[in-house]
Amino acid sequence: MASILFVEDDPSARTALELALTRQGHSVTSRSTGEDGLEALRARRPEIAILDVMLPGIDGIEVCRRIRRGDPLPVILLTARGDDLDVVLGLEAGADDYVVKPVEPRVLDARIRAVLRRAETRADIAAYGDLVIDRGSLKVTRAGTDVRLTPTELRLLLELARRPGQALTRQHLLAEVWEHTYPGDSRLVDACVQRVRAKIEDEPAEPRLIETVRGFGYRFVAP
């Protein structure tokens, strides 16, 4: 099971979810503020972080952003129902997934397991120009330099590169990478594609490796 850093300022929600996740076999470290969460992360790195967006002081989106500056640690955000702006900002900050509050523990547990499975892949190496993808060691390099990808970003790139030249729908990518089926979650795909492009493309605004198939999805183009 997973070691989890859980940051939630509401005492009752924090206690209830911590208890539920512990019963499901996870090891949970809970904090009530973004500052305390970052301190706990520096003291001991968990396998995944779960952050409430609306935290006092440093909010969950900023905590996610600071984590992403130097760590591919998987992050799940907890957002208020219908708060689309928070979802968009969180995904742009690098979150791997989000769950709408009030949180159903079984749903959160399923999302945790799905995020942690995303690093699983087959062992082989493929080169696309100066981009090299090593599925065995889960490493991506560009012009000989390591590309730091989160597990979700890596799995998205692997899924696209597994079928070069083939247009893949957002729904296909959502099902394969995030293990979701709800069509409204397609913005997870778009936000993650933008982050991957920023890391592997010479000109992210004019991508050559990951093309947009308008009204459909995305295509990986091998040079």
Automatic annotation (TrEMBL):
Q: Which SUPFAM superfamilies match?
A: CheY-like (SSF52172)
Q: Which UniProt keywords apply?
A: DNA-binding, Phosphoprotein, Transcription, Transcription regulation, Two-component regulatory system
Q: What is the lineage of its organism?
A: Bacteria, Bacillati, Actinomycetota, Actinomycetes, Streptosporangiales
According to the entry, every stretch annotated as the Response regulatory domain falls at: 3-116
KW DNA-binding (keyword) present: yes
Q: Which residues carry this modification: 4-aspartylphosphate?
A: 52
Q: Which residues bind DNA?
A: 123-222
Q: Which InterPro entries match?
A: CheY-like_superfamily (IPR011006), OmpR/PhoB-type_DNA-bd (IPR001867), Sig_transdc_resp-reg_receiver (IPR001789), WalR-like (IPR039420), WH-like_DNA-bd_sf (IPR036388)
**Which range is the signal sequence, renumbered to this chain?**
none
| Pfam families with a match to the protein in the record | Response_reg, Trans_reg_C
Q: Which intervals hold domain OmpR/PhoB-type?
A: 123-222
Q: Does the keyword Transcription regulation apply?
A: yes
**Name by which UniProt lists this protein:** Response regulator transcription factor
